[in-house]
Amino acid sequence: MVAVTDTAPAGDRSPVCRVSTHPTAADREPAFETARRTSDAVPVVRTGPTGIAAYEPLVLATVDGRTAFHPDPGPETVDAVVDALETGEVLADAAAAVVEHDPGTGSLPVPETGPLSVGRRDVLGPCGWVDPLAPDDYDLVSLERDAAAVGDAGLLGRGRGDAAADEAVDETWTAIRETDGDPVVVVNANDTDDRQRVDRTLLEGAPIAVLDGIAAIAEHVGAVDAVLSVNETETGLHRHLESAVDAAADVLPVVPQLVAGPDEYRAGEPTAALEALEGNDRIEPRIQPPSPAVHGLYGRPTAVHSVRTVLQARRALQDDAPSGTDRDPGTRLFTVTGDVAAPATVELASDDSLAAVREAVALDGALKMACVGDIFGGITETLEVSATAETLAAAGLGTEGVVELLNEDRCAVATAGERARFAATENSGRCVPGREGTKQLTELLRDVYRGSFELAKIRELGRTMERTSNCRIGAHAPRPVITAIDEFEPTFRAHADGRCPSGTCTENL
Questions:
Q1: Is the peptide bond before 135 cis (omega within 30 degrees of 0)?
Q2: In what order do the strands lie in the sheet containing 97-100?
Q3: Cα 408 from chain centre
Q4: N or C: less crowded end of the chain, CB within 10 Å?
């Protein structure tokens, strides 16, 4: 076996066989080990996931700027692919796609059709293509660029775990630089909701890029300390990130300390994450102001960002000026999940419609509705909405990065009720709207099954919770309920009359 070294970028090697899958997946070894055993002459590189779960493991055979894609191949196919590479050829006839590309590309070549053709691969570019743990395979921006350019461009924070979600990150960075104390960067990747796979995909597929982005932000705000928090149950991911930190320790100016966060949904909220990092027994969001930028981890000025915000910042530094609109620069990443054969992670430009994500997955049945955001996203019958924070919010949808496709067997009332009940059990209990409002919301939905649909009361409660909640759970819990009523009010009235049009509801919440 010829070992893959870190002396040259993976894109410069030819021929080469790449095996793309989750580094922590139980089935990752067979395809990789088969490829390694088949030939002593062809380099075999284990890469991270592409984001398209249906394709994993994905074997990519490359010769002189020509790559053949072989999704989920059997051992015989892997043997044939590697044998062909030994002769300087790719098995075009046996491939799902063959792409011509620059031989030195550091980004996954994109087929013209199929799930990998959906959207674009700016932030996702390295995922599935480069060695996740080889710093030499990445163009490290933290060594030569100042993140001030990102702030000047107006980049918005992304994701539930980001303290600057849908707000300009420059405001956070400026506040940190102007506040006395030793600043720190916290990357909050602790999300217990399995619907959300964006940050995990990025951490598995391009961890060195994440570390590079963290270092660039830390350098800009003057921080010498950084923390990367992942869920305590993700032991395989933690080991993978430890390897990435070890690989980058002598290369990057700042590398984060890895911390295991508690397996609680509420701990994914930015300031609740800080409480967990400080070791507090009660995990709850902090009352603001002051913001974490002024009084964060142990009272230090703190930037709390998501993985995708970090990589959007890094991508903007690579491009000099980020793509997107003036109000929402960059791209947006979404996990496409729900009633699908396998989930997918898709990256959309600001002028792309959310409807494009349907081409990345195989839907089980006909589409009835989608929940866009996260578990507390907005319910909609149409995905003809552009992928910007402004347009998503205007449509009553969430910007947290999940598109959950739900088929005709789903009931809008039950879907809304399940999410209200989740909010009632998972909120921190710190503020009255979050603690009592979620309970009242759940009871009002239970009343629908009992024959009473109090629309005005539900809407008023929702407005109160949105405006007065201290935490995002309380503020966002009404969203799936209100949007479901907007889209499916006759269905709610039918339930009050004792009938479920979908035929799925047999008992109360």
A1: no
A2: 44-47, 16-20, 58-63, 66-71, 97-100
A3: 26
A4: N
Distance separating alpha carbons of residues 172 and 293, to the nearest angstrom: 6
Q: Which range is least confidently modeled, 6-20, 206-220, 358-372? A: 6-20
* pLDDT confidence tier of residue 7, bands split at 50, 70 and 90: very low
Block residue for tokens 């996990």: 335
| Cα–Cα distance measured from residue 323 to residue 301, given in angstroms and rounded to the nearest whole number | 29
429 three-state secondary structure:
coil
d(Cα 167, Cα 178) in Å, to the nearest integer?
18
What confidence tens digit (pLDDT) does each residue in 302-314 have? 999 999 999 999 9
- Give the DSSP per-residue string, 361-423: S-BSS-EEEEEEESTT-EEES----BSSHHHHHHTT---SSEEEEEETT--HHHHHHHHHHHH
Q: Which neighbouring-strand residues pair with 56?
A: none
Average pLDDT rounded to a whole number, residues 54-72 = 95
Residue 278 in tokens = 């400080």
- First-to-last C-alpha distance (Å) of the chain: 58
- Tell me the helix, strand and coil percentages in the chain, rounded to 5: 40, 15, 45
Interstrand relation of 402-407 and 332-338 (parallel, antiparallel or unpaired): parallel
Structural domains of the chain ordered from first start = 10-115 (3.40.30.10), 141-319 (3.40.50.11540), 332-407 (3.10.20.600), 412-496 (1.20.1440.230)
pLDDT the model gives residue 8: 37
